[in-house]
Specification:
- 13% of the residues lie in helices and 25% in strands.
- It has 282 residues and is an alpha/beta fold.
- The strands form 4 sheets. Strands 1, 2, 3, 4, 5, 6, 7 and 8 form an 8-stranded mixed sheet that branches. A 5-stranded parallel sheet has the order 9-11-13-15-17, with no helix packed on it.
- The model has no long low-confidence stretch (mean pLDDT 89).
């Protein structure tokens, strides 16, 4: 009797585990020289192998609407151009630390994409790569050099942290986004035409180098007024802003906090003035 119950319990557990395992509903082995993919019945598309995923690969287009999540595994170094353009139900992407670049338009128009990581070796944000997505916050990795043309154009982006080492912010990179505040690192040498046009920018912090060039239309048609703060001498910033008719203010310094050691008597006097607990001693 006990053996029968044990066998029955084992059978039920096996059935549950089997049901929890995702079944593959589509797959392919031609997305790169040494890359393959599979899509399970939970909507997760996994890319495995080594090297680059081809540009303009269409092997998964027959199941496009079933893709909810993309997982790119360690070994893949690049996801090619147009790979998931306009993927209608894609919500999350996980990229490996081996990834160094993304092709242009890679996620362009994937309007439900809200979660993605940027690996430390990624060389930048691809041109039109995240245009029209639902991504709200981004921290660029240390290796990023360029934010490509239209990279976040018309996306839901509200906050981005730019890395030291970034060199270029290209045409319409942040056009029609909800960014309100941004700090430009000292390594940036170019802010291109319409880079921040038609966005909600309210605060810009500049730390310019000698080679920085700001296009005269870089902040074209921004809604309302915004303030530019300068982390160096304002004359240096103003010279860079002259072509767009703006001036800067000194970057506000953090208040200095006096630090000292108090006697017990002094501490009790402060506590009495602020209604804090007094120190009792024998």
């Amino acid at each position: 009797m006990k053996n029968t119950k044990f066998i029955l319990a084992l059978m039920i557990a096996t059935m549950i585990i089997f049901q929890l395992e995702a079944a593959t509903i589509a797959s392919g082995s031609d997305c790169g020289d040494d890359c393959s993919w599979k899509l399970d019945d939970k909507g997760v598309l996994t890319i495995t192998g080594n090297g680059d995923v081809k540009n303009s690969y269409t092997g998964w287009r027959s199941v496009y609407s079933d893709i909810k999540e993309v997982v790119v595994e360690k070994g893949i170094t690049r996801v090619g151009q147009f790979a998931f353009q306009n993927a209608p139900n894609l919500k999350k992407v996980t990229l490996p630390e081996t990834l160094t670049s993304l092709g242009g338009d890679v996620f362009n128009g994937a309007s439900n994409l809200a979660i993605i990581n940027f690996p430390s070796k990624l060389n930048g944000a691809a041109g039109w790569g995240f245009c029209g997505t639902n991504i709200k916050e981004v921290i660029l990795p240390p290796a990023a050099k360029v934010i490509g043309s239209g990279a976040f154009d018309s996306s839901s982006l509200q906050k981005i942290v730019l890395n030291d080492g970034l060199e270029e912010i290209q045409y319409r990179a942040f056009r029609l986004t909800d960014i309100e505040e941004i700090t430009i690192p000292s390594t940036v040498t170019k802010i291109d035409s319409e880079a921040f046009s038609n966005c909600n920018l309210k605060k810009l912090v500049l730390n310019p180098n000698d080679n920085l060039v700001i296009n005269s239309n870089a902040f074209w048609e921004i809604e309302g007024n915004f303030t530019v703060y300068c982390m160096v001498d304002t004359k240096i910033c103003d010279a860079k802003l002259q072509s767009i008719g703006l001036t800067s203010l000194p970057y506000p310094k953090e208040p200095q906090i006096e630090r000292r050691i108090y006697t017990i008597e002094e501490a009790n006097q402060v506590a009495g003035k602020t209604n804090s607990f007094k120190i009792r001693y024998r």
